[in-house]
Amino acid sequence: MSSVVRPSSTVTGTFVLSVFTAVLGSLEFGYNIGVINAPQKMIEQDYNATWLQRYGEPIPSGTLTSLWSLSVAIFSIGGMLSMGFRVRMCNIFSRRKAMLINNLFAFIGGSLMALSKLCRSFEMMILGRFIIGAYCGLASGLTPMYVGEIAPTSLRGALGTLHQLAIVTGILIAQILGLEVLLGSQELWPVLLGLTVVPTVLQMSFLPFCPESPRFLYIVRCQEHQAKRGLRRLTGRQEVGDMLAEMKEEKRKMEMERKVSILELFRSPLYRQPIIISILLQLSQQLSGINAIFYYSTSIFIKAGVQSPVYATIGAGVINCAFTVVSLFLIERMGRRTLHMLGLGGMCICAVIMTMALALLDSVPWMSYICMLSIFGFVAFFEVGPGPIPWFFVAELFSQGPRPAAMAVAGFSNWTANFIIGMGFQYVADLCGPYVFLIFAVLLLFFLIFTFFRVPETRGKTFDQIAANFNERSVGGMMDMDMDMDLDKPSTELDYLGEESIN
Ligand SMILES: *[C@@H]1O[C@H](CO)[C@@H](O)[C@H](O)[C@H]1NC(C)=O
């Protein structure tokens, strides 16, 4: 995208510190996805004990399932709601201040969860999960935004993947610390949940040393002088005129395109098809059943008769990390649509194998290994396709004007589906027994067919070419304004998030 020839940019200590500090937010996001998995049984026992103490009778098992599912899923409600005030927050506060304020949520949420056992209150636990969800919703926007804005253009794509990597690393850390010999025990689970404040404290103490995003200062606040100072600190160079020129160009392009509201997105025939595709791709990510694995894998492994379920969960976490790295290389080389279909197809096959293995478990004991392997495959295929790809599509199907609205709709669909899985899985699993993953297999097949027939390849195409693909009936004037953005450079979620606040 950059036409400016610039001397090789050096990576300064300030820059590394700033990226590290921001990425702590993604790490915490991942940690809170993975953390409630291993100690499920312990926490349930404590809910039971609390109930017994309060009402003099053991908790009815239906009530326990509801309370636990709510504790898991309310996280997504927090995330969903915080999407709503993210844009507003970014208009009022600078990036750094927004991150600082967001840390308060993590602090409150973490403390509530950590103290819930001591106070014998599952309400505190549920409220804590809600607040930490709100933190994660904000952090999942702020981190890529800040990193994308301070990164030099040449490094932006690579650094954008750090967000994804930090999330899967956070999940893995939570799974390892959740081992019963570490923190996953009856006494120590509050510490496990409370540890989420550690990255918060780190981030709060490092943030004062990180410069404010120069792109934000210049493009949104029009503070050229401060932007220059930030650039100097980040690059360690005195002469930053070329970067400023680049930002000027970006600002000009941004002002050329009219902002599109969410309502228009659905009304205009120009956008209707792309937005439906974006929503369905987000749903394909969540309804693939991946979070059923990340929230509930330990109890799935127990049912599958795996010897050490927690180690199997950690194995899934390791596979998850490894294939996130693999997919970084694949995304550069293969088409988005191909990868998405490969991922969905692979997950579908793994789900079918898993179901058969679970059904045969009673007669064929070694099926528990097949079950474990198919879960590993399921996770691996997720990271190849449905994990990263839907975000690419939203960024690439929409040009600058409609992109913020499209991203909000996509994010909302994603969190909603996440909630449905977190809330409903345990019930459906109790109801269907070993056949629960067949439901996901059917959904995956549906999304595979949908992708095959409806989703265009976007890699390396301009918005004009993609729009022509949709064969739209009415040709509005809006598409004429598309600049020929160079889509060879993968535009990542972060690219687009960086622009979300600029309105
Ligand atoms: C709750 O605890 C009681 C007594 O400790 C036990 O008998 C009962 O099975 C437990 N209920 C559930 C749903 O775990």
TrEMBL record:
It catalyses: D-glucose(out) = D-glucose(in). GO terms for biological process: D-glucose import; dehydroascorbic acid transport. It is a multi-pass membrane protein. InterPro entries: GLUT, MFS_dom, MFS_sugar_transport-like, MFS_trans_sf, Sugar/inositol_transpt, Sugar_transporter_CS. Keywords: Cell membrane, Coiled coil, Cytoplasm, Lipoprotein, Membrane, Palmitate, Sugar transport, Transmembrane, Transmembrane helix, Transport, Ubl conjugation. It comes from Dicentrarchus labrax. This is Solute carrier family 2, facilitated glucose transporter member 4. Residues 237-264 form a coiled coil. PANTHER family: SOLUTE CARRIER FAMILY 2 (PTHR23503), SOLUTE CARRIER FAMILY 2, FACILITATED GLUCOSE TRANSPORTER MEMBER 4 (PTHR23503:SF120).
